[in-house]
């Protein structure tokens, strides 16, 4: 009955004259999806599936203009996402309608290739619809993201090569106050429902908001597109649009951020929950299990994952002791970690030197790729600093994908905040994970696959994407890295870091661990700085289950590589194996397992090797 009421409200909203322009296009797409479900045009199932691929792309670009920017689609570049309650209901109904369409298609009538596409799409839609029971949309802001960070990142991603590009940026600035007010409205509902981030994780958010409240509009992170306008824009137009952007910032954006700051300080922080476990939210235990399943693409229980983590911590700890012995260090494990955290030889004294070494590592990695990959992407990448407005609460590094369609390279963002917490011994592993052969290589290859539906060109399935990133760190030895024992220890530290995640994420959200208990476990087993550890633990608190994907995905890829090496023996080709892993885009781990085992069978037949 509840869903029927929502559907009726939605129908009335979509038929209202207020919903014009892009929303009319959305309404037309919804109508066509419903027509496809009952097959009004008497199409074959393969035709209906293909038509839905096209419609789902259009719907994604219209409903999520930020995603369209990232993807390189020109639609909606003058808008921000609709966070109204009507918008949320509309998107949820679209997911349910799409799943109903999938259920009406006879899978057996599809080609083998389309069965894979169908299975992946239906699996994703089923997870989305199951997730609708959990009010994720109430969680609009935390120290990792929200209006105080995300819009600046989005605007920085936008092109500025034409007057129209700059007009789009101005339009998004004009749309920002409504976006912020919609976010606040959702967070107020979250307060009423008891669905908020833990208060402890929000402590830096007021300062993040203040970082957007600069006195000089030209210095705003939101106006970076107007700082260095290319000559392709007429200078008079450029100046007119710059002044307009600065006026919008001062008269509209600043008051909106001031409202957000007041809400955060006076309502959200005081009203946010004091507990950290997702299990303490309404239906929190089921919500966490849902997150675990979605993030790992497995049926593993939190307890099983916790136990896997403990086993991995024990194994990696033994390897760490071997490295310590090789350095000749005399002292305990804890003393060696203290040495790594405090000795000046492991730290740069300037941000410029830190960035120079990051870029050097990336440049040394590039030519080594041909030794272990047969296919490389066309999209280039750069190495740049994490923006200053976000650096204090941001993790050590992250990757932002590029787009050939938009003419935008990928970027590996490195954090230069608090140089005394950025040890050199972690830099090789980190760069291999975030840039190449990690995220940039995998995601760019996926985006450039031309024979797959659009949704399979889009990075998805965290267990695959982050599992590949962690696996990439282990490729460093084959690429000539980790020659220094401290860098090798750094690689083990990063692997330990991901094993620890299995323990502390499930510990906090499933087994009742305290935040301090998680911090202490991390400090006792990894050489990362205390600042990084605290930032990481707080990240796991506000992204329950996400951190589990890395190690679970890496273990599966390593398992499949060992299987292929054993079955193919001397005929095993590392370049062909990696091309096969990446050549179908990100997939659930069970699909990856099936793909690689089938590939091994094909290779064995081709080489006439017994299985």
Polypeptide structure, described:
With 611 residues, the protein is mostly helical. It folds into four domains: 134 residues, no CATH class; 134 residues, no CATH class; 263 residues, no CATH class; 56 residues. The protein is 62% helix and 2% strand. It is built from 24 helices and three strands. The protein has a three-stranded mixed sheet with strand order 1-3-2, covered by helices on one side. The longest helix has 37 residues. The radius of gyration is 25 Å and the shape is globular. The N terminus is likely disordered.
For the biggest β-sheet, the strand order reads 1-3-2
* Oligomerization status of the protein chains: single chain
Strand content: under 5%
Shape: globular
The helix count comes to 24
Helicity, as a percent range: 55-70%
Number of strands: 3
Tally of domains: 4
The secondary structure category is mainly alpha
């Amino acid at each position: 009955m509840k869903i029927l009421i929502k559907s009726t409200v939605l129908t009335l909203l979509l038929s209202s004259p207020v919903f014009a322009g892009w929303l009319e296009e959305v309404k037309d797409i919804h109508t066509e999806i419903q027509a496809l479900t009952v097959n009004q045009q008497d199409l074959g199932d393969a035709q209906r599936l293909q038509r839905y691929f096209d419609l789902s792309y259009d719907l994604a670009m219209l409903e999520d203009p930020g995603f369209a920017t990232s993807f390189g689609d020109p639609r909606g570049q003058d808008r921000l996402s609709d966070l109204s309650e009507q918008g949320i209901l509309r998107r949820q109904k679209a997911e349910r309608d799409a799943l109903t369409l999938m259920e009406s298609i006879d899978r057996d009538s599809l080609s083998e290739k389309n069965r894979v596409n169908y299975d992946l799409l239906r699996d994703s839609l089923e997870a989305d619809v199951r997730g609708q029971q959990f009010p994720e949309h109430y969680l609009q802001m935390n120290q990792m993201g929200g209006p105080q960070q995300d819009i600046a990142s989005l605007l920085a991603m936008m092109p500025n090569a034409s007057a129209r590009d700059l007009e789009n940026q101005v339009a998004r600035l004009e749309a920002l106050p409504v976006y912020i007010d919609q976010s606040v409205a959702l967070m107020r509902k979250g307060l009423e429902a008891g669905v908020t981030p833990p208060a402890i994780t929000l402590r830096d958010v007021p300062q993040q908001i203040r970082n957007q409240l600069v006195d000089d509009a030209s210095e705003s992170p939101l106006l970076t597109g107007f700082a260095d306008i290319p000559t392709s824009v007429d200078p008079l137009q450029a100046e007119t649009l710059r002044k307009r952007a600065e006026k919008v910032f001062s008269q509209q954006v600043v008051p909106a951020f001031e409202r957000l700051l007041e809400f955060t300080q006076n309502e959200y922080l005081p009203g946010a929950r004091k507990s950290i476990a997702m299990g303490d939210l309404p239906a929190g235990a089921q919500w966490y299990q849902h997150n675990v399943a979605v993030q790992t693409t497995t049926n593993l229980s939190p307890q099983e994952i916790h136990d896997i983590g403990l086993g991995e911590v024990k194994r990696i700890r033994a390897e760490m002791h071997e490295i310590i012995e090789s350095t000749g260090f005399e002292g305990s494990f804890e003393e060696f970690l203290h040495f790594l955290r405090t000795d000046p030889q492991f730290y740069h004294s300037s941000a410029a030197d830190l960035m120079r070494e990051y870029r050097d590592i990336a440049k040394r990695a590039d030519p080594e790729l041909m030794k272990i990959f047969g296919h490389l992407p066309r999209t280039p990448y750069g190495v740049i600093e994490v923006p200053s407005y976000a650096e204090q609460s941001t993790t050590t590094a992250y990757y932002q994908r590029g787009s050939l369609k938009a003419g935008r390279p990928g970027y590996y963002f490195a954090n230069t905040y608090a140089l005394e917490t950025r040890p050199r011994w972690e830099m090789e592993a980190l760069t291999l994970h975030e840039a190449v052969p990690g995220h940039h290589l995998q995601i760019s290859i996926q985006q450039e696959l031309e024979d797959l539906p659009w949704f399979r060109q889009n990075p998805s399935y965290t267990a695959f994407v982050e599992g590949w990133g962690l696996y990439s760190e282990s490729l460093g030895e084959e690429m000539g890295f980790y020659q220094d024992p401290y860098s090798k220890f750094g690689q083990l530290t990063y692997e330990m870091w991901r094993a620890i995640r299995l323990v502390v994420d499930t510990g906090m959200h499933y087994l009742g661990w305290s935040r301090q208990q998680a911090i202490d476990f991390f400090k006792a087993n990894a050489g990362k700085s205390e600042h990084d550890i605290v930032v990481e633990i707080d990240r796991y608190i506000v992204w329950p289950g996400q951190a589990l994907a890395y190690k679970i995905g890496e273990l599966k890829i390593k398992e499949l590589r060992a299987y292929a090496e054993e079955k193919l023996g001397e005929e095993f080709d590392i370049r062909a194996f990696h091309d096969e892993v990446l050549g179908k885009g990100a997939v659930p781990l069970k699909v990856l397992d099936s793909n690689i085992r089938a590939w091994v069978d094909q290779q064995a037949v081709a080489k006439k090797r017994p299985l």
